[in-house]
Amino acid sequence: SRRLTLGDIAAKKAAGEPIVMVTAYDHPGAQIVEAAGVDMVLVGDSAAMTVLGYDSTVPVTVDEMIMLTRAVRRGLTRPLLVADLPFGSYEASDEQAIATAQRFVKETGCDLVKIERGGTSVDRARALVAAGIPVVGHVGLTPQTATSLGGYRAQGRTAEAALAVIDSALALRDAGCALLVVEAVPSDVTAALMPLLDIPVIGIGAGSATDGQVLVFHDLLGIYDGPAAKFVKRYASLRAAAIDGVTAYADEVRDGIYPAPEHGYAMPVEEAARLRE
Ligand code: KIV
Ligand code: NA
Question: Which residues bind Mg(2+) (predicted)?
Answer without folding.
Answer: 45, 84, 116
